[in-house]
Amino acid sequence: MSSSEDSKPSYSDLETLCTQLQARVTRFSAVEQNLIVARDRIDRELARFQSIQSYSRKALPIIDLHDFGTLTAESVIETFEFECSALYLYDSESNILEPLGSFGFTEIKNHYQIGQDFINNVILLSKRTVTIEEPLPYLTFWEKPQLHQIIYCPFHDINGNFQGILLGGISEKNKSFYDVINRELISSFAVFSNQMESLLHNIESQNRIQH
Amino acid sequence: MLEFYSSSTNVVNSRKAMAECLEKALTENDTDCDLIIFYSAIGHNFKDLLDEAKRLSPHAQIVGCTCAGVIGREGANESMKALAIMAIRGPQEEFAVSWIDKIQGMNSYDAAAALAKDLIQKNDRITMIHFLASGIDIAADRAIESIESIFGKDMPIFGATSSDNMKAVNSFQFAGDAIFEQGSVAIGFADPSLNIITQATHGFEVIGLPFSVTRSKANRVYELDNAPAWEYLTQNLGLPITAPFNETIPVSALAELLPEQHQTAYNNNHILRAIAKKESDGSMYMPVACPEGTKLWLTKRNEDLIFGGLDTMVSQIVTQCDNQKPLAVFHADCCARGRHLFNSILKDEIVMRMQSPLCDETTPWLGMYGLGEFAHINGKNFFHNYTTALYVIVRRQ
Fold this sequence. Notes:
The structure holds 2 protein chains of 2 kinds. By secondary structure, chain A is of the alpha+beta class. In chain A, about 50% of the residues lie in helices and about 20% in strands. Chain A has a 6-stranded antiparallel β-sheet. Chain B has helices at about 15-25, 45-55, 110-120, 140-150, 230-235, 245-250, 260-265, 305-320, 345-355, and strands spanning about 5-10, 35-40, 60-65, 70, 75, 85-90, 95-100, 130-135, 155-160, 170-175, 180, 185-190, 195-200, 205-215, 220-225, 225-230, 255, 270-275, 275-280, 285, 295-300, 330-335, 365-370, 370-375, 380-385, 390-395. Chain B has 9 helices and 26 strands. Chain B is α+β, with helices and mostly antiparallel strands. Chain B is globular, with a radius of gyration of 20 Å. In chain B, helix 9 links the parallel strand 22 (about 330-335) and strand 23. Chains A and B meet through helix 2 and helix 3 of A and strand 14 and strand 21 of B.
């Protein structure tokens, strides 16, 4: 009789077992949530490419450059869920960037004089890659509005000359409401920029043919 | 008699988004109405939304709040630019709106009382209240108690607490041309021909032994089982104490035992609580008063229970509709039940399973992913978290 009673777990043993089991279940929940987050990231990446496709469809019939700029800036927001975006064209004669379209900035200038750093590091190197910057070493001319983080991609004309940049960003003021711009976005932002570059060349070609 | 019209969109330009919603909900040539209720994701320019609504509907009273996404007839949308509206036409004496610019843990009762008094002064024939509160540190049960002290315990209170696309930093509410942080708006409906059916369901299971709240003040909990609350909770969840607060929301649902008389009606023995805010001293805000001695259980989501519970709830609502087609549906879903739980296909499926038995493609539907839900259990007002809550308005026969 005593051996049978000895083999029965005490309340304290059961409590320990219960706590251990509970810990296993909650840890599994945490792992499961990580998997859900990973799945959501894949869903969102897929949605970004669907949005890029939709942007292309909407942009193809456009012949007015400013309409194209507006659509591009809005589509960057829709696709990547940034706070602000802009499409800038480079004027090599006066060494300025002019916004062709922008979205979400509280103030935007008609043109931005660019610095030697930017010329050396982006234009002269024919840089084509997507860059995420925080703070903004080459882009100090965007001091206002205060941007916390930006992502940008230079693009080029049909002769391979620097033609402008496509940019998305998050302001210092509202950064806590937005997801951090991270490397996960680089490939889709590059695809968007390349698509935008081709569409822009298409409009320029059409305009040349018609005039 | 009030008439309802809804629409939703993900257009990124805030003015265009509001215009599109109004034109789709009403008609392109006549976008004026008497009341606009809108739910907006955090990425919109709120002033532009309000200005455009006023421009297109000059006679309308305009109220709304931020959320973590919307659910309309068009489906669910959790983007930063989600927007959904319910436009309402009808006599001024059949509705009233009130607002307050701050409702927090310690002032929840008084602030909600001021709101309710203003509402009843504007219209003493109100039969149901759509309540959109701040989602950060409100003591929602105190707010309910306070509104009931003015309107009576039988007054149906339905709605949600606002969110900020689940960043859990702030929330905004709107009334007229004013934008509030952590405020509240209440819309009282006084159309005597309307009836409302409200119900909520979660689909979580409790696990293990409960924690005891060992030190608390109102809805702020300092200690669980005599240990610092946040540290103890994250430790039990298997998360680092430094885990970003908003990322803990999907896995940190705490359950509290429901009074026995409500358990069958709720189809569950427990009601869930989301931690609304954590403080730097290691304390945390619960959405309801949490006196010392309260028992709280960890929980685990169960997809079968979530879908099964929803199907049961919808079929019970259909029965209560008694062959009446819903006139309009308001809907609050926990932000942790959107993309933080389901992939896009399952999310579409669960929305379809709540919409198709109740409505056709013309039934106005205004839903949001928020931080918490106000809905009846057994004819009594409760505050819920982690639920799908449906508020179905039907015309009395």
